[in-house]
């Protein structure tokens, strides 16, 4: 490739170029150069292996190799990373075979480690580990890794290290953690603290209200209109209430923009067969959208009705795709469903009547489970391998996205699955004594992703 800076004679820019760059190995020659460097260091220099250091991860097509190159393109070091086992990718990855040429040791090793961490997180990984030689534990600690336990590799002392991925905790904190302090002193209904809706005292009416984020209304008005119905009927469904009607409050800059929002709202109202009873529309103002839903049930299901020992179940509609413009954050399974399918999903909690139920909110599956557990005075464990998940979503994205229709329930062992039409239902965890949420992996390891309560609202 032509060196444009050299042709232009720009010596100052040439001098400022970094001494090395890190990139993904995209061809066989680069991978071969990385493996040759491993042989030089791990076989000949350190004597860790005899003949070669290749293993099953090198043959796994999902394994990724990152390499460091100098300005001339020579491979100075590399690292590999990918799924920990041969089964489905559950968001548990291993990094390994970090190697740097003897003449280039210094900054390249730490840079490769940082690049591997960033790549893993961008790939939706929630558990990222590496076994490192004991003498390198200090380096990894300086880079922010946590030591898990001593292990032995090739008859040499190593340490299992874990990179702390705070994606789930950060989402829960930014979306829900301020609720407790903000709502202190406001009137509620005993037994339904932090629920998706609220029973109206002295009646069989349940009310729910949700606002759509203004930036979403501006960016995707039709989808915002659809979602304003979706989130509210889901809130009613979580309490076992049948929807009766909707009220909308819309602010828009002009008639054209308002019509786009209302088109989505109208389509959703018709699809779910829930009428819009009235509302308010204001033009000439910044975008704002809020919808209130009314439903009926004589026996509302609380979000905080769980107990330690109850099994956790996720019932989710896995059809659909990422909403364009919201990849990794909002899953659209509902716009392609027929009315009978949508209504079957909405009626599922009322039919099964579990001890506790919450529809998955913007806090994601894990954050919502944390809210259910918090309201129940418990902690929770989620079995990652048992969570129903669409093929088009990584574990990290699926556990933190808004999934369209997804309901978390808790009930005594042996409880029946929700009869939710096209949705998939599976037991995937349990409520336990304590607080917070842990992920349980196929090897039995547990990683804590939420330390304690999510909202601070307390027990229902």
TrEMBL record:
Lineage: superkingdom: Bacteria
Pfam families: Acetyltransf_1 (PF00583), AIRS (PF00586), AIRS_C (PF02769)
InterPro entries: Acyl_CoA_acyltransferase (IPR016181), GNAT_dom (IPR000182), MSMEG_0567/sll0787_C (IPR023911), MSMEG_0567_GNAT (IPR024035), PurM-like_C_dom (IPR010918), PurM-like_C_sf (IPR036676), PurM-like_N (IPR016188), PurM-like_N_sf (IPR036921)
Record Gene3D superfamilies: 3.40.630.30, PurM-like C-terminal domain, PurM-like, N-terminal domain
GO biological process assignments: thiamine biosynthetic process
GO MF terms, alphabetically ordered: acyltransferase activity, transferring groups other than amino-acyl groups; thiamine-phosphate kinase activity
PANTHER family xref list: THIAMINE-MONOPHOSPHATE KINASE (PTHR30270:SF0)
Annotated protein name in UniProt: GNAT family N-acetyltransferase
Species whose genome carries this gene: Thermobifida halotolerans
